[in-house]
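Table S2 (text version). Query chain:
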Amino acid sequence: MPLKRRASQASAVGPRHEVSDAPEPAPEPDEHGEYGDLSDCPVHYRKEVIAIILATRKLWRKGKPGAVSELRDWINQLQRLSGFSRQVCLQLCLAMCRCLAADRKGSFPSTVDLQQAFVRMGGFKAVC
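Corresponding structure-token output:
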């Protein structure tokens, strides 16, 4: 004897979802703020860390990936501040990746020149 389905059971495709006109809930606010998680950063280094984060973002928003001088500064900052803040390490590594991977056709320094400078300055030691 075949089983009869009740009208309240879900269809073979899946359960029905009711459409609501209510707006979607707002996304949860970022608990770490606009600079990321700085909970591991000592208070006396926080201003410097925020300044570095803002400077790398400002440079990128201007459409400038950076050159040898910025790369040198980022490597030095990473070596000095890597033990204080995970967030600044991530931001500096991201800035260096953007700098090294940028398409620099017809401009000086070329991508290869920058990558060689990164190795000569000990960038791999700082990042790893």
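Notes on Table S2: The two ends are 69 Å apart (CA to CA). The chain is about 50% helix and 0% strand.
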